[in-house]
Amino acid sequence: MYSKEQPWQPCTHLWRTSRWTRPFRHRPESHPGCPSCQSRRELPPSLQTAASDPSPGQVLAPVSGNSLGTRRAEIKPGVREIHLCKDERGKTGLRLRAIDKGLFVQLVQASTPASLVGLRFGDQILQIDGRDCAGWSTDKAHRAVKKASAEKIVMVVRDRPFQRTVTMHKDSTGHAGFVIKKGKVVSVVKGSSAARNGLLTNHYLCEVNGQNVIGLKDKDVREILAMAGNVVTLTVIPTVIYEHMIKKLSPTLLHHTMDHSIPDV
Predict the structure, then answer these.
(1) Per-residue pLDDT tens for 38-88?
(2) How far apart are CA 258 and CA 85, in angstroms?
């Protein structure tokens, strides 16, 4: 039952009669045959408001908090500490790049210590073994990692500050409403889920449901999108920043050595 402190939200599911179609306002529990009510009853209370009908002119993002892909793609606020080691060859599998006086992850190689500790393309490295990295050059950063202990390198990291995530739903044809060319979003379909949820052109696609797709051919990315389920979370980065990030990296290196595995949640 709904108390005075928690006022009930009427359902306005369209009720079809033999002569017309009109909204039929009712309490959700009073109309068990209503598909709109049924879907609302299956949602947790915290999401029922977001799932209800929007007011005129309001566009709501899809209710996707329970999506596995959304959790894999999450860009967490704050900073975290990781402990990195070197492999038997003395390598970490990590390549760094200095941009705007900050230090960022340019490449994480597959099946290396860097990939195992969860580093991703675009992560910002704030400290290495207690030393602040602000203002370091790329060469200075690589020298610091090379001289560090093979057993433990302590890094303080901020998750991908140049990137953002956009979650959308596919339509009945399996499309979300955007076009990529050489990894870049070049077109967004008007009225599509991609448009309604804020996807922009002139951004490169970094991840699909948390899986890195940088360096992959467009047909491979489209295959990953096709297998991604009805709710898709894209991680994107502005073109101007992306081009700085991958400077001096060959397409072959990105395609064959970048970690494209599906991350753990």
Answers:
(1) 544 444 443 333 333 444 444 445 555 568 899 999 999 999 999 999 999
(2) 18
**Tokens found for residue 149:** 């202990």
- Return the number of other C-beta atoms located less than 10 Å from residue 142's C-beta: 15
Structure tokens given for 24: 């039929």
d(C-alpha 124, C-alpha 143), whole Å: 17
Strand stretches in the chain, DSSP E: 14-16, 21-23, 79-84, 94-99, 102-108, 124-128, 131-132, 153-158, 164-169, 178-181, 184-188, 203-208, 211-212, 231-238
Paired sense of beta strands 14-16 and 21-23, if any: antiparallel
**Distance separating alpha carbons of residues 9 and 61, to the nearest angstrom:** 19
| Contact between 92 and 153 (Cβ < 8 Å) | yes
Supply 88's token pair: 């038997």
Cβ 94 vs Cβ 155: under 8 Å = no
Are 69 and 217 within 8 A, CB to CB? no
Tell me if residue 181 falls in helix, strand or coil.
Answer: strand
Residue 150 structure tokens? 């093979």
Report if pTM > 0.70: yes
pLDDT in tens, 143-180: 999 999 999 999 999 999 999 999 999 999 999 999 99
CB 258 within 8 A of CB 220: no
How far is residue 128 CA from its own chain's centroid? 26
Taking every pair of C-alpha atoms in the chain, what is the biggest distance, in angstroms?
A: 80
Q: Measured between alpha carbons, how far is 68 from 265 in angstroms, rounded to an integer?
A: 8
Distance separating alpha carbons of residues 204 and 162, to the nearest angstrom: 12
